[in-house]
Amino acid sequence: MIGRAFRVATLLPVLLVLEAPASAHVEVPRAGDRSIQDRAGVIAPDDAALMERRHRELFDKTGVALVIVTVPRLEGEPIEDFAVRVGQQWGVGRKAEDRGVVVALAIEERRVFIATGYGVEGFLPDGRVGSILDQEVVPSLRRDDFSTALTRASTALTAAAAREYGVTIEGLDQGRGGPGDGSASRPGPLATALLVIVAIVVLVTVVRHPWLLWFFLSGPGRRGRGVSYGGFGGGFGGNSGFGGFGGGGFGGGGAGRGF
Asked: Does the domain formed by 25-180+244-258 have CATH 3.40.30.10?
């Protein structure tokens, strides 16, 4: 009996040490009524005010709730877990829409992660979020210019959401939606010239052979009875105050980087 008790007493400290890292995590700050929670104290006041204004306007116009949280250290918790935990505990985004985005930065671990809610993963897939980090954020982080890095992240994410929902954010360059946003997909001079040539050929052909026009217009879609081809409808509505903490859901989408 004494031997068994001795073994238990010997193993207990070891078990406690092994268990501690698994359960350790940094406390999530209270959400309050602001989208910027700078617990690490690395964001310049002017940058924080600019991002706060843009985030409020973005939420009012699109329902996309973008928040940024910085911490000095993570106490052993993976940053992706922390970012998702922030999104879940704060309920970033409206419950029925799940249009939440959490940008988390840990200074001591030198890690950044952008977590995306279910409702924004369509226009912010993991690959695009990773590209935004690589090209817009990480270069400044490596110079320890944390305020600029987070402002650039905010700008790219805000522009992407604004363009997705067809709105304008005051003072924001809508073209800065980050890489892979399709903003460079306009046809070049060669493509434009080819389109003009094709249009001319079609016009000349129709003028010389008008029966071709009748043939194409009187195809099965026109001759059939009771055939209807529906369009695609939809829209984005529901404006309110910032209130970006309304129970939005997060499922692990997003991307992170070390620097």
From this structure: no
